[in-house]
Design brief:
alpha/beta; six-stranded parallel β-sheet; about 40% helix; Rossmann fold; binds zinc ion; 2 domains; globular; about 250 residues
Length: about 250
């Protein structure tokens, strides 16, 4: 399991649910929640507002009684989110996230969590980290204490430091009704240059197949497609990526 988790979140219904692992839109994807295997960091990407799903995500991590199946009465779930001692929120002030704020958040990680089993740093609009802030954060992300989780949210993932992105595992959580899936051109993976949009389209197709069939094979394909997307974004050798995609796509 990579040390970070990248979440792609495009439209979410029922965000009033307390625990995102119970959201209809991603019951299978959220398996790590149930198993307590949630990766140590998350980059949540969306073209929709991310506060509500971010709160749900962090709350589910902070919950002291994760087995509770209805409204949870634990101290963490009953406390106003911003007052919880084990979460540190970072946001642009006013346009960028300052290095002093990141330093303070990173220092808070030296202390074990007070209430929950985890300590969370939630970085809102992670694309607004200054280069200095991002590099400081990177050091923390590289060697997190076992109780630490990083949650980065952004509408603009291309502007997040690639070395942080590359440490992220990606989850896609989308409202299937919000965006129709366009047909992929035949032999899309042979295009020169290989278009990241096509990889995204293919990932959405795989996700839809997974939702309809519940075959985990599609989940694997979907994850690998996102890895290919990241490789493209990091300017990896296109021929190598193309070959990986060709093998992956013929495996369907
Ligand atoms: Zn709880």
């Amino acid at each position: 399991m990579p040390p970070c988790l990248l979440l792609t979140w495009t439209g979410m219904k029922n965000s009033s649910h307390k625990n995102p692992s119970r959201l209809d839109s991603w019951p299978q994807i959220a398996d790590p929640f149930a198993a307590g295997l949630f990766p140590q960091s998350a980059l949540v990407i969306s073209d929709t507002p991310l506060f509500e799903p971010g709160v749900s995500l962090c709350r589910s991590l902070l919950c002291e009684e994760p087995e509770a199946r209805s409204i949870c009465r634990c101290r963490s779930c009953q406390t106003d989110f911003v007052d919880h001692p084990d979460i540190h929120l970072l946001s642009p002030s006013p346009h960028t996230i300052r290095v002093a704020d990141v330093r303070m958040a990173v220092q808070s990680l030296l202390y074990r969590p007070l209430w929950s089993s985890v300590r969370i740093i939630w970085i809102q609009a992670a694309d607004t980290l200054t280069p200095e802030s991002a590099n400081l954060l990177l050091k923390a992300v590289e060697e997190p204490a076992p109780y630490v989780h990083f949650v980065l949210t952004t509408n603009n993932p291309d502007q997040v430091l690639p070395t942080i992105r590359s440490r992220c595992q990606r989850f896609v959580i989308a409202d299937p009704d919000s965006q129709p899936i366009e047909a992929l051109p035949p032999d899309w993976m042979m295009a020169r240059p290989l278009l990241p949009d096509h990889v995204v389209q293919a990932a959405r197709f795989a996700r839809k197949q997974f939702r309809q069939s519940h075959h985990r094979q599609w989940l694997g394909i979907w994850e690998e497609l996102w890895q290919a997307y990241d490789a493209l974004a990091a300017n990896a050798n296109q021929d190598i990526v193309r070959e990986q995609l060709r093998r992956l796509w013929t495996r369907r």
